[in-house]
Write a structure and sequence with these properties.
Elements (H helix, E strand, L loop, with lengths): L2 H15 L1 H7 L3 E4 L6 E3 L4 E4 L1 H5 L3 H16 L2 H4 L5 H18 L20
Parallel strand pairs: 1-3
Antiparallel strand pairs: 2-3
Helix pairs in contact: 1-2, 1-4, 2-4, 4-6
């Protein structure tokens, strides 16, 4: 299945399962790019995706990733992150978002940042 088709299938399934996320997702433009490793959104309503990343995911993981990107918009992370240390800000935002996604029964890729999986200090 092509990456874009997988994203569309994920959006359709979310329409049935979780209309909140589907409403936002249906208003985002899907833009393929290899300049990023996974996915990203911007405040203009674009969702950028790396096709190889999307192809590597199960459909359940794609739905989780789509919801992850939606929550960056919902929580206004793009605007609120200005002037902050971007790496740290993104880690914090991803931790909160992914905890919410998992709490709601959605799947995420294994390498996703989740608070209880995150180890910043090695003892």
């Amino acid at each position: 299945m092509r990456a874009k088709d997988k994203l569309i299938a994920g959006r359709i399934q979310l329409m049935k399962e979780n209309p909140f996320f589907a409403y936002i997702l249906l208003n985002l433009n899907l833009i393929e790019t290899k300049s990023i490793p996974s996915c990203a959104v911007d405040y203009k309503g674009n969702l950028y995706y790396n096709p190889e990343f999307i192809k590597s995911l199960t459909l359940k993981e794609v739905k989780g990733v789509l919801c992850h990107e939606c929550l960056h918009l919902v929580f206004e992370h793009l605007m609120r992150g200005k002037g902050k240390v971007q790496t740290l800000w993104n880690l914090a935002c991803d931790s909160v978002i992914n905890a919410i996604i998992l709490k709601n029964g959605l799947d995420l890729p294994k390498e996703s940042i989740v608070p209880y999986r995150l180890s910043l200090i090695h003892i």
